[in-house]
TrEMBL record:
The keyword Signal applies. It comes from the Bacteria. Keywords: Signal. The keyword Signal applies. This is DUF4230 domain-containing protein. Residues 1-23 form the signal peptide. InterPro entries: DUF4230.
Amino acid sequence: MKYFILVVSSLLLLITACTNKNSTEEPTVKSIDTIPMLVTQVQQCSRLYTTEYRIHKIITHNDEIKLSGSIMKHDFNVDLPLGSRRIAIPMDATLKAYIDLSSFSKKNIKHKGNELFITLPDPKVVLTSTKIDHNEVKEYVALTRHNFTDAELTSYESQGREHIIASIPQMGIIEQAQRSAARQLVPLFTAMGYKEYNITISFRKKFTIRDLRQLVEVNIKD
């Protein structure tokens, strides 16, 4: 009888120990690598347009016939008032900034604990359209001069485009594109379980004025 009681007591202790062990241990959770999924999600954004600027510019040109020469070893240069031509051409242009994410890969991602560090590709700026308001073109042509030709007007329009492109560094469009890209992509990362305060989005470098020229494209469709 004593032997039977001893066996039953031992079984009860064993069952209690197993029950306590199962209740105190946390279930093992397998770590899931979310990086490949994250890369795929970002690549699907493809060309991410972030900023659009509409520019209004007045292109001006002024040329005059000058009479120059030399009298008794004295040089002279005189404007002839009857030979002047002036023109003012209003131009509207559209600039768009985008980031090409099609080549985004694991190289653009660093993962440290719960922190996520993203380096985005260089932004690009594209001049997508220019338009001349021909009804608002103002010109003055002296009687002794010929009117502006279509070739000249085309040349002035091309110069206007170049002036717009040259002024891009002063517009802050690259900086705006970077901020906009970060705002658009953060929700994508938080949806995958990352906390916003653990996400850092940066770019390869701070661009100089010389760099910015290389980031500009012209893609005007007639």
